[in-house]
Amino acid sequence: MSTQATDALETFPNPKPDRDFTIRIDVPEFTCLCPKTGQPDFATLEIEYVPDQLCVELKSLKLYAWSYRDQGAFHEAVTNKILDDLVTAISPRFMRLTAIFNVRGGVYTTVVVEHIMDGWTSRPPVILP
Questions:
Q1: Is 106 left (phi over 0), alpha (psi -120 to 50) or beta?
Q2: How does DSSP classify residue 124?
């Protein structure tokens, strides 16, 4: 078992690339540092994506998230960087990253960023009676 953080995201082939389906991943122990004070910022990352040809491997995602523990970053910047890195690694049809940061000085921050592959549109939701 690896004990080293890494910024490398591993992938594997989508087992059903002809079907749109959603993968949801929660990372409840994300930590980075406040760039102003150096104090830790804690967040839950909620990742939702519709894969195209590749999926992200979960152990590598855990080690990737761990790599931010010693990095100073504003909430908005780190959320956008994580989305950019995931999109670069797997080129999903759609991805949404919601970063829900714990309270700091009486203020909660939630940052939501999205990626939509050119030409892809989601199917309309099915409403059952």
A1: left
A2: P
In the structure encoding, which two tokens stand for residue 111, read together?
Answer: 């940052």
Place of tokens 């389906």: 21
Q: What is the reported pLDDT for 125?
A: 87
Choice among 7, 26, 41, 85 that is catalytic: 41
The residue from 20, 34, 52, 85 that is catalytic is 34
Q: Is 41 a catalytic residue?
A: yes
Element containing residue 82 per DSSP (H, E): helix 75-90
Quick check: pTM over 0.85? yes
| Alpha carbons 66 and 72: distance in angstroms, whole number | 13
Residue that the structure tokens 């203020």 belong to: 107
Q: Which residue ranges make up each domain of the chain?
A: 11-116
Q: Are 26 and 44 in contact (CB under 8 A)?
A: yes
pLDDT digit string, tens, across residues 43-99: 999 999 999 999 999 999 999 999 999 999 999 999 999 999 999 999 999 999 999
- Is position 85 annotated as part of the catalytic site? no
Fold of domain 11-116: GTP Cyclohydrolase I, domain 2 (3.30.1130)
